[in-house]
Amino acid sequence: MGVNVKMNEGTNTVLLGLSYNKEKKWQLLCGDVTDSDGHSSNWATDTKRHVVILLRNGSHGFAYFDGQRVGNQPCTLDTTDLKRISHFYIGGYGDSAASTGSRKD
C-alpha cells in the first residue's frame, strides 16, 4: 500500500513516496533509499487518513501521515538532471496500482 510519485524514464523508479509495509510501519521512499523512523499504525479500511507528499524548494521531499513526518531525513532530490513527474500511484505499486494519473503541460 502506498502513495508514490514516479518519473517517465523507463526504469520505474520511485522518485518520492510513502509506503506501508508488512510490519505495519510507514516508510519514506526516496529513489533507491528507504527511510523508516518506526512510525507504525494499524491500517483500518473504515478510517479516513491524511497523507501528504510534499516537494519543497524543488529539491527536498517529505512525507506525512496524519500530521506526523515519516522518515528521519528529508528526501534530497537531484536537481541537476531535472525530469518531469509522469505518474502518481495511489494504493499499489507499479502495474498493480489501483489508481494512476498523469499530467502533460
Q: How many domain units?
A: 1
Quick one: how many beta strands?
A: 9
Order of helices and strands: EEEEEEEEE
Strand-residue fraction? over 45%
Q: Report helical residue fraction.
A: under 10%
Biggest β-sheet: count, sense, barrel?
6 strands, antiparallel
Q: What shape does the CA trace take?
A: globular
Task: Give me the number of helical elements.
Answer: 0
Main sheet strand line-up? 4-3-2-1-8-9
Radius of gyration over alpha carbons?
13 Å
Report on the structure:
InterPro entries: ConA-like_dom_sf (IPR013320), TS_C (IPR055239). This is Trans-sialidase, putative. Pfam families: TS_C (PF22925). The chain has 105 residues and is mostly beta strands. It has a single domain, classed as Sandwich (Jelly Rolls), CATH 2.60.120.200. Helix content is 0%, strand content 49%. The chain contains no helices and nine strands. The strands form two sheets. The chain has a six-stranded antiparallel beta sheet with strand order 4-3-2-1-8-9, with no helix packed on it. A three-stranded antiparallel beta sheet has the order 5-6-7, with no helix packed on it. The protein starts with a strand and ends with a strand. The relative contact order is 0.25. The C terminus is likely disordered.
Topology diagram in text:
Layout: E1 2-7, E2 14-20, E3 26-30, E4 33-35, E5 51-56, E6 60-65, E7 68-76, E8 85-90, E9 99-101
Antiparallel strand pairs: 1-2, 1-8, 2-3, 3-4, 5-6, 6-7, 8-9
Task: Name its key features.
105 residues, mainly beta, Jelly Rolls, six-stranded antiparallel beta sheet, three-stranded antiparallel beta sheet, 0% helix, globular, disordered C terminus, Trans-sialidase, putative, ConA-like_dom_sf
